[in-house]
Amino acid sequence: MSNIGDEASSPANVKTLTPGAASELPVELIEYITDHLHDDKPSLSASSLVCQAWTGPSRHHLFHDLTVRANTKEYARGVLFAKLRDLLESGPSVHVYIRRLFLWSDQSMNQLVPASLLEACYERLPSLHTLSIEGARFPPAPPLSKVADTDNTNLAPQLRTLLVTKSVMDDGLLCTLGHLHSLSKLVLKEIRRYTAQINSSRFHRPSLAHLTLDDGCDIQTLQYFLSSDRANEMEYLDIIFPPQITSEMLSIVGSFLHLPHSQLKDFTIDFSAGSLYDLFLQKHFDQLNLVSCLNLRSVQINLNVRGVSWWGEPDVTDWSVLPSILSTTHSGIQHFTLGLATSEETLAEMTEKLSRWDWKPLQTTFTHWDALETVTFKHMSVSGKRSAPEWEEMVRSQLKSLPTVRLQFEYVGLSEREELEAAQEAEAGETDEGQADTV
Fold first, then answer.
1. Do the Cβ atoms of 425 and 307 come closer than 8 Å?
2. Is the distance from CB of 322 to CB of 280 less than 8 angstroms?
3. Rounded Cα–Cα distance for residues 238 and 300 (Å)
4. Range of lowest pLDDT (14-28, 126-140, 298-312, 421-435)
5. pLDDT at residue 212, as a whole number
6. What pLDDT was estimated at residue 375?
7. H helices within 258-296, ranges in order?
8. Which intervals of the chain are annotated as region Disordered (predicted)?
9. Fewer beta carbons below 10 Å: N end or C end of the chain?
10. What is the DSSP letter of 114?
């Protein structure tokens, strides 16, 4: 005698869903199944062949993110761009599903992206939302020969996000930005400038909602992005200052923060702690007052304190170095984060020394932020994600006078590459979604 479970599990009673029956399933159910398989590439490849009704939902996940990469030898032979050309010349049945395209090489700033390839990317990938280019330069003329340098033609109305890594801030990049009017988010990382002067007046400046300048924000770059007529429309600004930060850089950022009708909601700055201390002593931080940013809701300050002992200097005995960056009063800020990039040993040393500091300046600042909900202390190290109970206990005891503010602690691991880069900078006296297919 068998029970229902035995009967159901018998191979003779297993029913196979035929292609005909599969095609009759509701579209919502097919999409639910393929959404569940979003990171299972072999299953998605198989489901795309079931029938026409399954092809689109499966390809949506298969080709949503696409990476074209080349190693050093391939890059030298131009293989990266040859692979991209092959992709763009393939059938259009795939092009419509590509929303995020990543061009990656382990080389830096050596070759120009052919203008014809940029033109093809813009024209043949109608759903392209994000373009990421690493290790290549932009052509010094518009992608379309019929477009003049000063023409304001929008070459890629579908493109919203551009990420550029290991490239050059020159007329080629400015020309590209000048013809991407729909761009709302720009991330520049490890950007260098070859020419002594940027001729920014030739090109239309994009109106950006989100700007990240990571290890490439020299004076001219800051001026270009933060001094434009529509800079006050920016909502998110993330700046990682170089170790050789100057008072002029702070002045440019300070002027941006004082723009009338500023829409800035999220502001993140990253300093080498050594530079921070030097500038604090020179009284330059008064320029970074946030009181004019009425829409500001979130502030994050990251300090790289590897190899730097400014917290132990005899003339630094409290957190005045931070409140001088912040405003003493602000009615809108809801979230504040202090990030510390240290080793575990440094954090233990800081815990002991900071416990003897006067935390009243920091408490006073937080007290005057009427809308403040959370204060987060983020520890970043190569070991990462290891809690530090002594550190947390010390901070809580120092800020216990803020009963309505929620204190949070985060521990973030740095990659070995990031740790190596940070260590090298310290020795010199300084510091979006889914898996991608690979072509």
1. no
2. no
3. 9
4. 421-435
5. 92
6. 94
7. 273-281
8. 418-439
9. N
10. P
